[in-house]
Amino acid sequence: MISEAGGPAPENNAGNEAGHRAGHRAGHTRIARTALRKTVETITARAFQVGGSNVTAELDDDSGRLGVRVSVQLALPPLLGPRPDAGTALDGKATHGTVFEKAQAARTELVARSLELTGMELGRVDIRLTGSKQAQLKESHSTERRVQ
Fold it and tell me: How far apart are CA 19 and CA 13, in angstroms?
């Protein structure tokens, strides 16, 4: 610290000692980019009720806040089959609604949980939903069967 005269300001040891007694230490706490990315991926996976391997996240600066782009691989229900009944998951969340409604609820949860866990305010949150198909057996021109 510099005093008005341009030289070093006098030390205020009384304030420092009080801070140490209260359990506060001088220094910085930094969260690695990978840890932030994994945290965002985990929160997103839980919000969409998918496995962690089905979510990828990218982080960017968004005017001083943390910008997030997540991609979620969702298992799509059969379009011609019977519709599953709406219900609730084990954590009490509704399992019905459009994918857009689910994405909005997941975005809200991601913003709130990220702030709670990391102390960082999220800026823009882009969610990309991708569909996945289960492996199907298709017969080729030969008698061999391939998994595609």
Answer: 10
List helix spans (H) across 8-147.
13-21, 33-48, 99-118
Place of tokens 């509704």: 94
What tokens were used for 3?
A: 């005093």
Task: Tell me how far apart the alpha carbons of residues 9 and 6 are, in angstroms, rounded to a whole number.
Answer: 8
Instruction: State the angle between helix axes of 99-118 and 33-48 in degrees (0 to 180), rounded to the nearest 10.
Output: 140
Give the C-alpha separation, 85 to 96, whole Å: 8
CB count, 10 Å around CB of 104? 13
Q: At which residue do the structure tokens 């929160």 appear?
A: 43
Neighbours of 42 (CB within 10 A): 15
Total residue length of the chain: 148
Answer whether 0.90 is exceeded by the pTM.
no
Burial of 20 (0-12, 13-18, 19+ CB in 10 A): exposed
User: 111-130 pLDDT, tens per residue?
Assistant: 999 999 998 899 999 999 99
